[in-house]
Amino acid sequence: MNTTKNGVSTIKQWFMNIRHQQIVVTITFLFIPLFLLFLFTYFPFFNMMRFSLYDMKYIGGRTFIGLQNYRDLFTRTDIFNALKLSVYYLGASFVQLGLALFFATILSFNPRGGNIFKGIIFFPYLINGIAIGFIFKFFFTRGFVLDSLLVFLGFTQETLPYWLRDTSINNIMLAATSVWRYLGQNMVLFIGAIMAVDPQLYEAADLDGATNWHKFWHIILPSIQTIVVLNLILSITGSLSAFEPPYVITNGTFETGTYFIIMNRLAHELQKVGLASAMAVVLMMIIILVTVFQKTVFKVFFEPDSSGFTFSERRSMKKRGQYGRQNSVVQGGSV
User: Fold this and answer.
1) Is 267 helix (H, G, I), strand (E, B) or coil?
2) pLDDT given for residue 330 in this prediction
């Protein structure tokens, strides 16, 4: 009994220590989010990788087939064509980022009416994706909003294409809806980064006679490269996983079925859970490879090397014959 009481008193004394209380609180607050992260992220992910090795439905027996699902993934024309459709959304993402960076650069210097323009551009991002799908479904439907506007401008109804049925343009129309929706999000991120650039850099550039293009290329872009990389990753990831616009507007018909739509159809309609899981794993690998490639490119072109100059600065100095002399000075100073 005395031993038990001594043990309880020892534990109580241990908990009375402020340092020990901090340790307990830290472990508790770390354990809960890590447990939830494992339960709802890593555990389902590892299960998905395991499912990709089986021929299975949601309910019923499973047959282990190894890598057969991955072989089928690259031989089925519907899956391969769906992956090729990502090129449309990938191209749209670069247009979207270019416009966002252009508008952000202008709006960061507080032009007249800039706040109103920011609100107008950012507003589509606040709308639910399903609602946007319905908006553009009526917008592009034959004889509705877009056709009415073009007829008002002088076109005839017979000369206008079927925007959602013509396979030569329907994916371009759908990709344009993503540009309209996410342009504001990218723009706001760029504006926040540009506003954090030291104004004295602009003043020094003005004294040196720099043009607006020189300010953008040598001051703004290197200063916001982290946000540029982030937006690129988000945009390319979104282009590879486009789902809402083609699903709501066309339901994947007329050759508009993206990778996610085919994955959804295989998993939920055809009950090919193993093949759909393999598609998800391959998509994750593609996104990882693209992300690593982006970061490598930005490191090469925008981060300074051992001499302290970026790629564009070295190229400019080489044209003027100054890079060799500057590099020698830097190396001599370091020695």
Assistant:
1) helix
2) 46
Cα distance between residue 318 and residue 104, in whole Å? 31
Closest CA to 175 of 248, 98, 258, 92: 92
Domain architecture of the chain: domains with CATH: 73-319 (1.10.3720.10)
Three-state DSSP class for 56?
strand
The chain-wide mean pLDDT, for the chain, equals 84
Size of the chain in residues: 335
Q: Is the pTM of this model over 0.85?
A: no
- How far is the CA of 308 from the CAs of 104, 125, 313, 315, 323, in angstroms? 28, 39, 10, 13, 11
Dump the DSSP string for 178-231: HHHHHHHHHHHHHHHHHHTS-HHHHHHHHHTT--HHHHIIIIIHHHTHHHHHHH
Half-sphere exposure of 162 (CA within 13 A, CB side): 6
Q: Classify residue 246 as exposed, middle or buried by CB count within 10 Å of its CB (0-12, 13-18, 19+).
A: buried
